Amino acid sequence: MKYLQAKRYLLLPGLFFGLLFSCTERTESGDSVGETMILPWQGGKKLAVSVTYDDGTVNQFKKAIPIMNDLGMKGTFYINTGEIPGSQYPARFIGRDILEIIKETGQTPTNADNLFERASAIRMVDTEGSVEIHNQAGALYEQGKVREACELIDEAYAKIKAIPNIQLRAPKVLDGERTTWEEIRDYAVQGHEFGVHTISHPRLAVMDEENLLYELVKCREDIERELGPEHTFSAECPFGTEDERVMEYALEEFEALRNRMPEEYLHEVNRWGDFDPAYDRKPYTQWQRGPLSKTTLAQKKEWIDEALTSVNSPWLVLVYHGIDGIGWEAQSSDSIQSYFEYIHDLDDKVWVGTFKEVTQYMRERMAANLTVDVDDNGIRVNLSHDLGDRYDFPLTLQTRVPGHWTSVTILQDGTEQTLPVDGKDGAFYVVYSGVPNRGEIMIVGQ
């Protein structure tokens, strides 16, 4: 190995638009040997894509997973646990006796002070349409129509009073075939992520605190018991809610929410928002799109093509529900296959990662502490963050190396990578993986 001028570079955590750089110093020959950057997405790709599914309908597993497995893609499945055989926690109402609540509605009209209790209870009343009343009240509330939501609840309870022998029962979420925990464990082993979608898919915005938390926390506990803590990282609160009170509770319980990702370096565009490829005021943009039954393959391809023109680092989050006639707004498996094949053919530009993986990568990169030392033995890179043990996803780094190196060996924590040296515009560099907080990364040239 030829002599390398000894030097040390330091990168502290910070927000940068584009790439993260570790140095600006140059050697006497003018080369910035050791200059290291953390690339925006894994593998140096331009676009990150997460394929997510809601509700856990059976064809998501029987039709979509085989397609994804054949293409080497991993998805994220947000599941309702209440109707999975073997789950410990069923849907239930926690609170006063329902007869007491019903009686009180005849004396005190529903208002902002008692709406949450009454809306939580009504979806458990064993009468036709009670779940729909709960859902409609929630939709009205989220539109700011509190008075209309209260009136709807009062009308429903007025009818319930006339029904003898009122009973409570868990609402039915899914029709048809159920997927078992044993089957879900097999899918998890294949690399797919599972996350919280509540026990029974309620409108959380009109639930009181105890019932709201029961739906979120007990769903998570069933998933953790059956699949392990690695599947408790992310959640999706039903109906795509962005209700501020719900978000406050949920963000206290989970590292990541598909509903909201309030990071100062992330621009969010929800499923109903317009994507602006020219937006450059934050390093990352998360753009959600939900394919519906009438969404054409050409339209879905346009989402990929448009995202690839973004000036910052885009993250396209796809939100699927039904497939082949089962579930809400079902897409055909043929359409899914064609679309996923289109994404797969863009592998040089597109990284497909689970919601958890992409979140971890982005947060680790933005929280990175990076130091680089160059001497006769090679280039030593130290990569760390203070995010905690739940963040150990490999980052992709690019380091400038001497022009006479043709290949390098990367050593970290007992692992070894042998990689070629690439050159562009008179600069020579190597692109490699490094895991934060796993000890020194040693780059040795050949």
From TrEMBL:
SUPFAM superfamilies: Glycoside hydrolase/deacetylase (SSF88713). It comes from the Bacteria. Keywords: Hydrolase, Signal. Residues 46-250 form the NodB homology domain. It is an enzyme of class 3 (hydrolase). InterPro entries: Glyco_hydro/deAcase_b/a-brl (IPR011330), NODB_dom (IPR002509), Polysacch_Deacetylase (IPR051398). It is found in: Secreted. Its main location: secreted. GO terms for molecular function: hydrolase activity. Its EC number is 3.-.-.-. Pfam families: Polysacc_deac_1 (PF01522). PANTHER family: POLY-BETA-1,6-N-ACETYL-D-GLUCOSAMINE N-DEACETYLASE (PTHR34216:SF3), PTHR34216. This is Polysaccharide deacetylase family protein. It comes from Negadavirga shengliensis.
